[in-house]
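Intended use. Records like the one below are meant for learning the mapping from a protein sequence to its folded structure. Do not use them to infer anything beyond what is encoded.
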Amino acid sequence: MILVLWDIDRTLLYTGDIDRRVYRETFTSVVGRAPTALPARGTGVTMPLAVRELLRANQVPEQEVETFAARIVAELPQRLANHRELLASDGIILPGAVDALAAVQQSEHLIPTVVTGNLRGSAETKLSVLGLIGYLDTSIGGYASDDPHRPALVRIAQDRAAAKHGGRFTRDNTVIVGDSLEDVRTGLEGGARIIAVASGTTSAQQLRDAGASHVLPDLTSATTLLHLIDEAHPTS
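Structure written out for the chain above:
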């Protein structure tokens, strides 16, 4: 069995500025003023870390950062869920994502789930609204709500998969499919091989240089993806 850990944003789907809108709304609600700076786009940084960066970039006193961060993180999933209609109208499924997800799901030796910088509630809202959640076992994923340190999410997902399916999941039989340098770092430090997809803000060469096992321009060839997933597993 091979555990396939999908990234979500800019790998499977793109929601434009909706996340940034939610950050702005939640910051304003919790802090009591509108932010003048927002998190950078497409970095792959986990939501709890992005929230702390947001607070510091907007000159929130350091002694208040953790308190405000906890409140913002707690509110983010519901605030995103309040924009389900906007997600449905403006959210985009990236080219090839549906066929790639279906191909992985239909392969008996592959277990598809997610490792994402999103909080679990936010991840499930995005996947549900855009009709992708049925291709993934989100119950065994790794989310920023589990740990803000993204590489730690690999082991969390591996342990959940082992508890459900038996066996043991390690770097040898775990593959991340993602678009950012954070996805590459997550695999290298967390214990997974990386198939990078240059569908985000990071170039194919940057992904290669960072240590991705393979780099695809997009997900439009499900056959190629399946081949690389199996190639990444030394005993397959």
